[in-house]
Amino acid sequence: MPDQGQLSVNDRVLLHLSRFATDMAPEEYAPDSTQAGIALAVGISRTHVPRAVRSLIKEGLVAELMGRVRGHERRMNVYAVTSEGLKGAEKLWQGASDSLFSVVVDGADVPMVGRDIEKTVGKKRAIAAISQMKDGVVRLNEARRAPVQDLRNAPSPEPFYGRDSELDAIESFMDGDAGMLVILGNKGYGTTALARKFVDGELEEDLLWLRLTPEVTAKALESRIVEFGRTIRKQVQGLADALKLNNALIVFDDYFNVTDEVVELFSSIVELADGVKIIVTARQETPAYNWFYQKKHVDSGRVRELKIKGLDENSSKRLLGNDRIEKDAFKRIMMMTHGQPKVLKMLRENDVKGLRGDTLFSAEEIRYMLFLKDKTQ
Q1: What does the pLDDT read at residue 3?
Q2: Which of 278, 282, 315 is nearest to 185 (CA)?
Q3: Do 96 and 204 share a structural domain?
Q4: Measured between alpha carbons, how far is 215 from 257 in angstroms, rounded to an integer?
Q5: pLDDT score for 141
Q6: Please, are residues 16 and 59 in contact by the beta-carbon 8 Å criterion?
């Protein structure tokens, strides 16, 4: 009798990537070629993918590239098998062809060797099914679950400029070991817009966006998190279970003025998060007594911080809406606004009411900036 099929995570990742091998680099790569796509396809935590791909790269079986990914605006890290990797994947598949697998077909458990799985569904689907096997079981005719994405509390996407290094830092967090990223910035500097821009590209992740207000209760937040978890996995019983979900992202937006109970909830989340990724947009001026994590969490790598400032000059000019603005006028606007996106947007829209009600600028300063922003060379 053939041996029971056993494939390591690295083997399954290599087999998975071999399905997308081409003679020439494509104009757009499949989402399955990214770390998030690999994690979803192979059925492992996203934090386990870097270890697997690093090992495969070291062996010369996989190459890391920067490329455009279908459904994403930005170029991303993608992974492609090398010629040696293809040989390795073919060798793995030959071994799998003679190995016995426990296969679930239409709910029934049927022992099958790899070549019989290939005869049943074709080679590519057979490789995909074996790459995705969980607990030693291969499941055929089982469609991949669509990601659960709850964005009902998220702001609508708006035109976005710059912040490439910040977006790269968030991507690095998603691919790293830290469970929580806190994006820090003063009011109006675009922490929410940055997080919203990032999640627009997270097409393969389960995603929950929660807006924090002074009125929101810890009980309501916990209930939403558990509800989200149960939508993904029926076995989720409470907060701890929901925070163990792999390939899921929870965004808490605008952490600033919250109750003591919410602070305590977040302190628990820092300790309990194990699998799920968490992004918190927070105001730099949050009172000290409201902070929920400590220096030890940052030092240990459990929490990462990303501090953002104003936009760079090119992005500020684009947001202001005047590419031909006079050099000295633009310099004065940058000195006054420090590249604060919210103020630049209001200047572009001639939003005098917003500038008066939501900034500290005097009426004279507002009139002056509105005059300056229309000056052209």
Answers
A1: 47
A2: 282
A3: no
A4: 9
A5: 66
A6: no
Collapse the DSSP code of 282 into the 3-class scheme (helix H, G, I; strand E, B; otherwise coil) and give the result: strand
The per-residue DSSP string of 120-178 comes to HH-HHHHHHHHHT-BTTEEEES-PPPPPPEE-TTSPPP------HHHHHHHHHHHHSS-
| 2 located within any domain | no
Q: Please report where in the chains the tokens 């000290």 appear, as a residue.
A: 288
Q: What is the CA radius of gyration of the chain?
A: 25
The pair of three-digit structure tokens given for residue 236, joined into one six-digit string? 């989720």
Beta strands 303-307 and 248-255: pairing type? unpaired
- Residues 45, 60: contact at Cβ < 8 Å? no
For 193-245, what is each residue's pLDDT tens digit?
999 999 887 777 889 999 999 999 999 999 999 999 999 988 899 999 999 98
Residue 83's domain comprises 9-140
Q: Tell whether 129 and 25 lie within a shared domain.
A: yes
Are 270 and 341 part of one and the same domain?
no
DSSP 232-244: H-TT--SHHHHTT
| 297 and 156, same domain (yes or no) | yes
Phi, psi of 86 (to 5 degrees): -65, -40
Residues 131 and 195 in one domain: no
Q: Is residue 351 part of a domain?
A: yes
Is the domain of 25 the same as that of 127?
yes
From 140, 172, 195, give the residue that closes a domain.
Answer: 140
Low-confidence ranges of the chain (pLDDT < 50): 1-3
What pLDDT sits at residue 144? 64
Q: Could you give the number of structural domains in the chain? A: 3
Q: Do both 201 and 333 map to the same domain?
A: no
pLDDT value at residue 2: 41
Residue with tokens 């900036």: 369
